[in-house]
Specification:
The chain has 13 helices and nine strands. By secondary structure, it is of the alpha/beta class. It folds into two domains: 195 residues, Spore Coat Polysaccharide Biosynthesis Protein SpsA, Chain A, CATH 3.90.550.10; 90 residues, no CATH class. Strand 2, helix 2 and strand 3 form a beta-alpha-beta unit. The longest helix is centred in the C-terminal third of the chain and has 23 residues.
């Protein structure tokens, strides 16, 4: 965990880790020169739970540098990430460790999650592509992993050089792409983390910086997926998809993504089911970003592709079931 001025959410985040059913872990908290109660709070936790260890920077170095600092301090074979304002379900680590035992070639594993507001109330669902085919297909369009949910192989991460410090915000998107290009990766579709949005979320300027960084990573992913750079139209539509499509651009995006899916399958026949397995998820994402007729069309499309998944999603989203 890298943290700067974690505030009251940090207490809840630490509590969610202490409550894990999997008990054999050490937690490295890198405090980036916080000016609030972060340092004494973590010190108090470390006195009560010797598995929690604090590294405190006298001067702020930024999140990416802190992540690499923590990465080098970790001693276990597997490293799990969690942000200071997010929460992990009590069975998160247990479920991930069991998956990794069952799939020993996997080096990176994430989960789906919930979106929660500043008060901890569920306000949305965060879905992720599950298998490697859908993940590889997704990379040119969006980050297929929730950073706060991942667990990854320490030695593999170090061999790849850790997080690239040229990226201030999208450092995880870049890191996961490098891992996925060399090794098996996966997601668990179970919602095992809660990602908090609210006052601590990125400012408008930082969001724009994050999108610019994501555009750079997505361009690299497109070269690997399609053996060419995306056209200006393809780049623009993929960028709009990451930001949230507007209604009048949905048909253009669907047309372009179908064409790109055909290219992807021709180039990567071993991942031929990747685009189809992501279609319902993407249709629901588009429905959520649009209003009116486009939203209804997105829901209808998702239901036609995968009715069971769409019905479960609607139950969770609107009936908390």
């Amino acid at each position: 965990m890298a943290v700067r001025n974690g505030g009251p959410d940090l207490e809840l985040s630490l509590r969610s880790m202490a409550a894990q059913s999997f008990r054999d872990w050490e937690m490295i908290v890198v405090d980036d020169a916080s000016q609030d109660e972060t340092k004494p709070m973590v010190n108090d936790w470390s006195r009560r739970d010797r598995r929690i260890r604090l590294l405190s920077n006298p001067q702020a170095t930024g999140q990416t540098a802190c992540l690499n600092q923590g990465l080098k301090e970790c001693r276990a074979a597997w490293i799990a990430r969690q942000d200071a304002d997010d929460l992990s379900h009590p069975s998160r680590l247990e479920a991930q460790i069991q998956f990794l035992r069952d799939h020993p070639a996997t080096v990176l594993l994430g989960t789906a999650g919930y979106l929660i507001d500043a008060d901890g109330q569920k306000v949305g669902l965060l879905d992720v592509p599950a298998d490697r085919a859908a993940i590889v297909w997704s990379f040119p369009f969006l980050n297929p992993f929730l950073h706060t949910s991942v667990i990854f192989h320490r030695d593999t991460a170090l061999e790849l050089g850790g997080y690239d410090e040229k990226f201030r915000i999208a450092q995880d998107y870049d890191f996961w792409l490098r891992m996925a290009q060399a090794h098996p990766v996966a997601n668990i579709p179970s919602r095992l983390v809660s990602y908090r949005c609210g006052e601590g979320s990125l400012s408008r300027a930082s969001r724009e910086e994050a999108f610019r960084e994501a555009d750079t990573v997505a361009g690299r992913a497109a070269l690997a997926a399609f053996a060419r750079e995306m056209t200006s139209e393809e780049q623009a539509l993929a960028a709009e998809f990451r930001r949230g499509l507007i209604s009048r651009r949905v048909s253009d995006f669907n047309r372009v993504s179908r064409r790109l899916a055909e290219e992807f399958i021709r180039r990567h026949p071993q991942f031929s089911h990747g685009p189809s397995s992501a279609r319902a998820m993407w249709a629901l994402r588009i429905a959520g970003s649009c209003g009116g007729v486009a939203a209804v069309a997105g829901l209808t499309r998702a239901a036609a592709i995968d009715p069971a998944y769409t019905f479960r999603w609607l139950r969770e989203r609107f009936f908390n079931a």
